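Posting this for the archive.
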Amino acid sequence: MENKKYTIKCPECGTDVEVSRPAVINVQNDPEYKIKVLTGELFNEKCPKCGQGLQVVSRITYHDMDKRLMIYFRPITSQDELKTFDYEAIRSAIEDNFKAPNYAIRVVTTVNELMEKIKIAEFGLNDGVIEIAKFVYFDIFTKQFDGVGVVNIYYERRDDKDALIFFCNDGKTRSILIAPEVYSSIEKRFSAVVNAIYTSRVCMVGRDWALRMIKAYSKLDSENNGETPDLKPELKLLESEN
């Protein structure tokens, strides 16, 4: 496993802390690293002088050959990094160097996105369907919880059920069950695009991608006289947490 060394300055005592992290993770060769990513252990460190917790966020290429999944984690931690983030250059470089057929190839920019993609693949789901489902349930959520703002939405497996975790601005999280019939309906309705992202095309499959797909299909529906009905699932709240 290829490792890179980094120096992090402790914000508490100013000590320079040297850390080593893998640049490439192949979970078939090093299966324990999947757990380290999913638990967040890989991104945590402690200052040896004062014990302050430190976050280690570095570039990682995550490869799961069994799942045919390749994730390029290219963290954005500041506005300056956001301004210089060149997705097209990253996409071009990946496609030039990785030619394996029928892979899900993703680019993510946050630790939570990296974890989410791994979990979605782990349970045999399509991340394109999940991203579109977030919009479907967000619309219902905001009507039922009027006045509660949503900060982020992530996929999670809760009690052997697929769920979306809504992180809200009232300090609570709310776990919403993804109804199997809703998942199947989205998968069928958007089959052309959700299947295409599993053919070794490099994609950033997130909120912006899902919004583009929904707009494109809404336009198609209007041109076809609105023959496709809107999804209006029941909102099933699994739990509320402080």
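The chain has two domains: 1-123, 125-242. The two ends are 40 Å apart (CA to CA).
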